[in-house]
Amino acid sequence: MTIFDPRAFAEMISTETGLGFEGSEGRTNQGNRFLELTPVGYPPGQTFSICVEIGWRRIDVRFKFGSFAGELMSSVRSVDASGRHVFRAVLDACSNVGADVVLNLNGAIRSHRDDAMWDESWRSFEFAVGKGMLAINEGNDTADMHLIEEWTIRVAAAVIALLPVEEDGEESFDVHGLPEGAKVRIEVNRYERDRRNRAAALAIHGHRCMACDTDMAELYGPVAEGLIEVHHVVPVSQVGPEYIIDPRSDLVPLCPDCHAVAHRRSPPYSVKELQNMLRRDCGNPKISPPVQPGRRR
Ligand SMILES: [Zn+2]
Ligand SMILES: [Zn+2]
């Protein structure tokens, strides 16, 4: 059985999602281990929990509102169109890789693709993502941990899509290491800043740079865990304010290097163009093994 500290787990999910969680653990009546995450700093019951049950070759991740979370539930129900879209896209990505996605509204099973649910009144709402046939509990703690993280992050991304969010004020960042006067300011657009989009893009595409295939944590170790940027491939100038993001096609994870290079031109270089730049020099350690766009870790 995996030795897995619920506090470290909560910290990892907090870093990934930008939302503070605290973790606890326990056992189900069937004897399966579970890890439970709740948002930190709120009265218990007024928010929600994400419960991760580790079964035999199986992981089930369940989202539930607390018993006194009526207020939060009504703001989730009235989430904007892009939040709904991101929620659906993340759960679609889960079912595309063979997970069971079960959504329960007012005691009845519904499809997460059913748009009618947003116009109904909600008395209860929960959903779960379960994946079987996993190589888990076979003695490799690190591999187990990655699987648990991977599936929890997907559910957390779907949850974050539905939560009322505040924009952070960061408008742009500097590229360091360039001579004075040649400094480039990268305009990080609002789609790239949006926490929901970031969480969804990483849940769908994974944490490898889609241009150079680097996983920063493999390169630098745990200190670089989660260090990946999310890039919006459609120039902001070409989309209107009502544009609804599709995290599958509009957002790509890029390492800080590739992201900076992408923005050396406006409109930005495409992932394909970045890959071609890297292939130019076959001695580049960043292209070995060969680039496989869209590969999951
Ligand atoms: Zn890269
Ligand atoms: Zn970008």
The main β sheet shows up as: 7 strands, antiparallel
Cα Rg: 20 Å
Number of helices: 9
Count of folded domains: 2
Give helix % range. Answer: 25-40%
Report on this model:
With 297 residues, the protein is of the alpha+beta class. The chain folds into two domains: 6-162; 174-282, no CATH class. It is built from nine helices and eleven strands. It has helices at 6-17, 70-77, 81-96, 141-162, 190-193, 195-205, 216-220, 256-262, 271-279; strands at residues 21-27, 33-39, 48-55, 58-65, 100-105, 108-110, 125-131, 172-174, 185-187, 229-232, 251-254. The strands form three sheets. The chain has a seven-stranded antiparallel sheet. It has a two-stranded antiparallel sheet with strand order 8-9. A hairpin with a 2-residue loop joins β5 (100-105) and β6. α1 (6-17) packs across α4, α3 runs parallel beside α6 and α4 runs antiparallel to α6 (195-205). The chain starts with 5 loop residues before the first helix and ends in an 18-residue tail after the last helix.
